């Protein structure tokens, strides 16, 4: 799809066609949404779809997950006129942090961290990432927020897959994602 083309009818998720499949092999995610971010209307419609379920909800801050969640998270924060907090992979913050180990979508053991001075008890945080595949990364972010006394106001991602971890997140938190129900099985099977 051309980066300037806007379809006459824009149904939820129309912009998913802008994403590119993995051509580099198993060490990479199966789909790259970064092209979607280059399309002005696609990005705006993606933001609208992600935020629709949270209209009227009290949200104090938006947190994006390292690294691609920074793009969506910052866009969401700007749209909501809220502050933005980066939840980082360990070793990137030069301030006091709280760490949480996790297993990412590829099965690798990692550690995520967040600065300890940004979340106060009761602060309502919308967590944003590009993709929730197995749920390990998002669960680590949830644990960090809650260990600091924050409240997870919701979880937003382009796709929350129907994995064990994705289902757990959907059962326990208000969620938003951009994949229409009719397309969800294709995204779960990585087609």
UniProtKB/TrEMBL annotation:
Gene name of the record: Apt1
Phosphoribosyltransferase domain span: 46-169
Keyword GTP-binding: no
Record pathway: Purine metabolism; AMP biosynthesis via salvage pathway; AMP from adenine: step 1/1
Top-level taxonomic group: Eukaryota
A Pfam family that the UniProt record links to this protein: Pribosyltran
Database matches in CDD domains: PRTases_typeI
InterPro entries assigned to the protein according to its UniProt record, in alphabetical order: Adenine_PRTase, PRTase-like, PRTase_dom
GO cellular component: cytoplasm
Catalytic activity, as annotated: AMP + diphosphate = 5-phospho-alpha-D-ribose 1-diphosphate + adenine
SUPFAM superfamilies linked: PRTase-like
Annotated protein name in UniProt: adenine phosphoribosyltransferase
GO BP: any one term: purine ribonucleoside salvage
Summary of subunit composition and partner proteins: Homodimer.
């Amino acid at each position: 799809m051309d980066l300037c083309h806007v379809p006459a009818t824009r149904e939820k998720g129309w912009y998913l066609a802008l994403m590119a499949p993995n051509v580099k092999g198993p060490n990479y995610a199966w789909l790259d949404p970064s092209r979607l971010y280059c399309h002005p209307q696609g990005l705006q419609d993606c933001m609208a779809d992600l935020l629709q379920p949270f209209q009227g909800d009290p949200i104090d801050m938006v947190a994006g997950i390292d690294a691609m969640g920074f793009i969506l998270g910052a866009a969401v924060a700007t749209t909501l006129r809220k502050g933005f907090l980066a939840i980082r992979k360990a070793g990137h913050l030069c301030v006091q942090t709280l760490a949480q180990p996790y297993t990412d979508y590829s099965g690798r053991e990692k550690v995520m961290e967040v600065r300890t001075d940004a979340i106060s008890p009761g602060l309502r945080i919308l967590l944003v990432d590009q993709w929730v595949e197995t749920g390990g990364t998002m669960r680590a972010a949830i644990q960090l927020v809650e260990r600091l006394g924050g409240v997870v106001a919701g979880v937003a991602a382009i796709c929350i897959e129907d994995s064990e971890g994705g289902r757990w997140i959907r059962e326990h938190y208000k969620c938003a994602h951009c994949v229409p129900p009719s397309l969800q099985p294709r995204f779960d099977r990585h087609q």
